[in-house]
């Protein structure tokens, strides 16, 4: 079976975040299962500049076709679709609110090729630009009706979605297998992580953005007046929020980390914290932390907790987080990746979705 993937940006543009890591983790398993694939993306690079060469590329043994970017706003590129020279049996579209996704939908319709749509948490009823979200409900509902079905990564994402498609599946992300320990953290970062006593180091890893629940975390930390340190690592999407982190006592912010440093950082934490109120359709970082034995404190809005609650993730309210901060009480969970999140299980589910979509 031939599958064409459409995603707004792809490696080396790793800063686009979870959707890229998800796809890069899924593709080798699909290849082993006999799926032949190609990824269509824009020319956005890791700094969100449209400077990567157009045309065919090969990244980590993955065939990529980059379409020229006509215009973009952050990670929302708009393109002029060109034939990638690949004959797909099904098109898998990842993302919403970008020209690559919509162009792929139109191309699939022109070619009479079935397509499945994975919104990647971007079809929520709530969020920024409420007028645009409201205006987008009808065209997105029409798109969903034309699709073979939608893929949700968790029941949380399904419940938050603004539309109800005629067909849908729940397919979690693969929990990545971490490398063996060995890569040390940067000495300056390691020094900053030392709380000065045996108190816990709480950590956040991801974009510095309001929707991630960072203001609530800062409020809980400040009012708790507890021991230890709270550390934030990731690219800055909101500079005002980054400044608020820098002004808060007992809280430090470190620069974005590369792939190897991410693992070293997660191993170093006593607990990972992720407390959004909405919009975290899965939360790859939670599975990554659990994979290295670091427990997590999450809100119920984190989709990964559907599989990891009791397997390394603890669901808390903000008041519960405040209590943990006050007592310095990091979870002592048995961190285990359940079989539902293994490569074999997720790939089998994905292949079954493609087979259903092409019937």
Helix content: 25-40%
| Average predicted local confidence, pLDDT | 94
What global shape is seen?
globular
Spatial order of strands in the largest sheet: 3-4-2-1-7-8-9-10
Structural class: alpha/beta
Instruction: Give the SSE order as H and E letters.
Output: EHEEEEEEHEHEHEHEHEHEHEHEHEHH
What does the radius of gyration come to? 20 Å
User: Which regions contain 5 or more consecutive residues with pLDDT less than 50?
Assistant: none
> What is the CA-CA span between the terminal residues?
13 Å
Largest sheet: 8 strands, mixed
| Oligomerization state | single chain
Tally of helical segments: 12
As a percent range, the share of strand residues is: 15-25%
Number of strands: 16
Explain the overall architecture.
This protein has 359 residues and is an alpha/beta fold. Helices cover 35% and strands 19% of the residues. It contains twelve helices and 16 strands. The chain has helices at 18-32, 99-111, 130-146, 155-160, 187-192, 214-224, 239-247, 259-268, 284-291, 305-308, 318-327, 343-357, and strands at residues 2-6, 36-41, 55-59, 62-66, 69-73, 76-79, 90-94, 115-118, 149-152, 168-170, 201-205, 229-233, 251-254, 271-274, 296-298, 313-315. The strands form three sheets. An eight-stranded mixed β-sheet has the order 3-4-2-1-7-8-9-10, with helices on both faces. Helix 6 (214-224) packs across helix 11 (318-327). The longest helix has 17 residues, at 130-146. The protein is globular.
